[in-house]
Design goal:
Length: 133
Amino acid sequence: MTHKELVIADRMTKTPHLIGAEQSLKTAHALMREYHVRHLPVLHGGKLLGMVSERDLHLVETLHDVDPAHVRVEEAMTQDVYTVTPKTPLKTVVQEMATRKLGSAVVIDGTKVVGVFTTIDALETLMEMLSAQ
């Protein structure tokens, strides 16, 4: 398969780790550390509400008098999430992420989150392509 034929489902992280909007920043940090991830899609009632990144958590936690155990993820998340379907061409996703300077895209099938594509996934794809030359 050439890179022109790749779709995001071929390169995304499948079954990503998710977090509920009502969970604490402390819980988000624990999940990120445990699973070695930097992005967590945020759900409420089973639907995508936003995305919280390691950077988002650190930004909120630097505010005066913020206790990560008492601040909810929804207060730190980004609501403007770049979403794509599993069949979206990889080239389209990478181009959009680069143009908008995004660290991730959430892959949705219908209303269900089925994957996440991050800059790390993009770099791993690039490395495989370079190694194949």
